[in-house]
Each structure stands twice: as C-alpha cells, then as structure tokens.
C-alpha cells in the first residue's frame, strides 16, 4: 500500500492566559473546535517562580473526558476523590480518565514551594465518546523511568501514547491516541506513521521545523506555501491533512508534540470542567456535584 504524505492545512497561533490559581499557560486559539478528539492543549510556562510564589489548581471537578499532564520541569503534587495521591517530577506523565466524575487537586510540591524554580509542562484534554463518558474513573501515572524513549539519528522521542521509531507506549487509552514529545537536532529528519483514519496535528514549542511533502513539491514545484514545504515555528499549532505518514525536517534545534486521534463526530456540550453531549447532561453534572453524588 502506498503511503500518502500529510501536509499542513492550517497554522494556528497561540495566546497567553492565566489558569488555576494564577499560572500562565500558552494556548492555541479556538482549540476546542479545531481537531477532535482534543479539547485543549495548554503549555504551562515555562515560568520561573520565587520561593513561596508557585501556584496550582486547587480542588476542582471533571466529567466526560480525560486530562493528560506531562511535566518537563518543576515538581507537583496531586490528589483526587478516588483516593489517588502522588507527585509529578520532570518526565512524568499522569493520564486521568474522569469518566462519570472525579474531583482533583494539582498543586506545587511542598519542597518546590520552598525553593522556587522553573515550571514547564503540558496539560491536554482528550474528549471521550458518548459511550464512555460515564465510565468509572481511572488513573495512570507513568514515571519518567518507565516512560519509553528512543534516540536515533539526531531525533529523541518520548512515546507518551502510540508508537514512534519502533517504540510503543505503555499507556492504555480508551480511544486510539498518539502523543509524542520529539526533540530534533539541526538538520535531523523524522518520518512518523499515523493511521490514516486519525486526525493529526503538531505543536512546536521550541525552534522551528518544516513539514516536508516531496510528492507535492514535485507536483507543484512553483508553490512553497502552506501545505507543501511548510515551516512551523515556536508557539504554532499545525493541523495536518489526511494521510498515512508525515515527514519533519528540523531547522535548528527544535521541540514539538505530535498528536493524533479519531474524529468522534458527536455533539459537544461544554461548561468549565464538564464535557458532555447535551445541555441536559451538563445540568445533571452540576446537580450531582451539588448533592454529593458526583464522584460516587
């Protein structure tokens, strides 16, 4: 079977907003309406905090989707209503499936609060299809020592979900998800296969890369614009076309996330930390939260 190369179909810029107790995140514009099944992509920081000034997100509810937290720098502690408790250190991944409901707290670790320092990471929201929105909550935490990585020909990758360069993730996802952190040296190249039925995008958060499509260059040699040999720079989200494979060339040292997942093709009703299919389901979530049956 011939592999069809993916191209860039849209570049989305980011803007900075304040979240939780007051920490800055970089977020693509119109994220929730761009690419099913991803609802949100927040780059947390990088922020430098003085001792005693680190902030987080105190107790808050979730229903109907999954939150993925990936920490690059800093130290956090977390706790939820299902009895899970622990900490996140650089390279750690927390994959929390809220399902029918969970109440969660994410705060700076006590030691980090004392010392201050650099915080950097990501939180990504993954929508759940209607048949799984009320599933029992579950929690997966993968420390950096157990999170699979691969380094080859100037490319380093941490495979949070999916597969890259022959290495597969240990995360169990409800729906097929690809989430890969890639670092590329100047001049490095990566060919990443992505199942053709999945939507896909990349987010560059350091340097710049080129999404290269040799077939389209040969077909349209006079066109060097969007979708052919498209550069994606720091702070830009690129939506990709359909296809089986995407080719990246690094222009200097660069870092990016590769994301892919299925088109759920279902209505979305969303209010704050609840993501359901109808307004009535959102109202039920609020009622359950108020009467104490939310996370039972």
Describe the structure.
The protein is mainly beta and 296 residues long. The protein has a single domain (8-262), classed as Jelly Rolls (Sandwich), CATH 2.60.120.10. Helices cover 8% and strands 52% of the residues. The protein has helices at 110-115, 214-219, 279-291; strands spanning 8-19, 23-28, 38-49, 57-62, 65-73, 76-80, 85-88, 93-97, 102-108, 117-127, 138-142, 149-152, 155-161, 163-164, 167-168, 178-184, 189-193, 198-206, 208-212, 229-233, 236-240, 245-250, 254-262, 269-271, 274-276. The protein has a 13-stranded antiparallel sheet with strand order 11-8-5-10-3-2-1-21-18-23-16-13-12, with no helix packed on it. The chain has a 4-stranded antiparallel sheet with strand order 4-9-6-7. Strands 17-22-19-20 form a 4-stranded antiparallel sheet, with no helix packed on it. A hairpin with a 2-residue loop joins strand 24 (269-271) and strand 25. The N and C termini lie far apart (49 Å).
Work out the strand percent. over 45%
Number of strands: 25
Q: What's the domain count?
A: 1
The global form is: globular
SS element count, helices: 3
Fraction in helix: under 10%
Distance between the termini: 49 Å
Strand order of the largest sheet: 11-8-5-10-3-2-1-21-18-23-16-13-12
The level 1 CATH classification is: Mainly Beta
Query: What is the ordering of alpha helices and beta strands?
Result: EEEEEEEEEHEEEEEEEEEEHEEEEEEH
Q: Identify low-pLDDT runs.
A: 220-225
Structural class: mainly beta
Oligomer: single chain
